[in-house]
Amino acid sequence: MTADNQRESAANAAMWLASVIRSHEVVLTHGSGPQLGLLALQSFSYVGEPSRLDFLGAEAGGMIGYLLERELRNQLGRDYLISTLLSQVIVSPQDPAFAKPTRSIGPFYERTHAHQLRQARGWEFTPFDGQYRRLIAVPRPLELLETRNMEILLRGGSTVIASGPVPVATLPSGGFQGVEALPDKDAYAGLLARELNADAFIMLTDVLAAAVNFGKPEQRQLRHATPTMLRAIEFDQATMGPKIEAACGFVDATGKWAAIGALSDVSRILCGEAGTRIVGSLPGKMDFWDS
Predict the structure, then answer these.
(1) Rg (Cα) of the chain, in Å, rounded?
(2) Of 40-44, 53-57, 199-203, which gets the smallest average pLDDT?
(3) Backbone dihedral angles phi then psi of residue 2, each to the nearest 5 degrees
(4) Whole-angstrom Cα distance, residue 193 to residue 216?
(5) Of all helices (H) and strands (E), which one includes residue 17?
């Protein structure tokens, strides 16, 4: 989480994405969990109460958006149209996720301090080797506030970096207020792709493809599959599961295709030469790269 490591990661991403951006309309988004966690640690070091998570989410999104935009300009040239937009996503305060927070984040607290924060702020905690760490909710994203802005930027020829997202809730007055939560990045990206009527939805990660029996000797990497086929397979809900759910949701809603694969393979994924492609229907069974 050093500045140099984050700059290098953004530079690597820009290097692989540049050729795709030159020939396609592209909207980029990203996860921000590690950066948000670091900001929570920094917030804890100050005298006074910790900063709100929606504030920290906005800060993390701005930081990552800045790094991506800067490194893309280094690849594409200073005059290339790239716009970073902080994205707000509406969540429901009645989402069941708020009754059962699952995502641990931020610093480790001593038992007494954790109890004080639970009493004062209503936080939930989980034990870690004698200390306690905050748990936050992962609600389902319902609607984006900046979709029209992104459409205008795309029509003007700009690549868009949709940073964040910052979760907000609708007030009875029709306004909005920030929510202390962390929407799942894959669910958010899938919603963004659907609202923009994207031609394809690609999730780039650090594995070559989705796999059955992941991490086992009989592991096999999927080449093509339908949502029905994928929903019959049990994927790890901490890693690949949310990506599968987001991809299937996009394909079901649009009839278009989604894909999961490695960042370094992005150009080949577009051509169907790498990664896992999820489609509405297949003439036969799902197939594998080693078939």
Answers:
(1) 20
(2) 40-44
(3) -75, 160
(4) 33
(5) helix 3-23
The overall pTM is greater than 0.85: yes
Residue-range domain boundaries for the chain: 1-100+137-198, 199-291
**pLDDT score recorded for residue 47:** 56
CATH fold for domain 199-291 = Carbamate kinase (3.40.1160)
- Residue for token pair 């990660």: 205
pLDDT digits 0-9 by tens, 178-195: 999 999 999 999 999 999
Per-position b or e across 88-114, b if 16+ CB within 10 A of its CB: bbbbeeebebbeebebbbbbbbeeeeb
The neighbouring-strand residues paired with 89 are 144, 167
CA distance to 19, 48, 163, per residue, from 179 (Å)? 37, 20, 17
In this predicted structure, what is the pLDDT of residue 51? 79
199-291 has the same fold as 1-100+137-198 = yes
97, 181 in Cβ contact below 8 A?
yes
CATH code linked to domain 1-100+137-198: 3.40.1160.10
Residue 118: phi, psi to the nearest 5? -65, -40
In 3D space, the residue among 260, 262, 263 whose CA is nearest the CA of residue 278 turns out to be 260
**Residue 81's closest CA among 163, 160, 162, 158?**
158
Both tokens of 244, joined, read 């599968």
CB 63 within 8 A of CB 80: no
| Pairwise CA distance, residues 241 & 233, whole Å | 10
Taking the C-alpha atoms of residue 38 and residue 197, their distance in angstroms, rounded to an integer, is 34
Structure tokens at 154: 């795309």
Give me the pLDDT at residue 48, please: 60
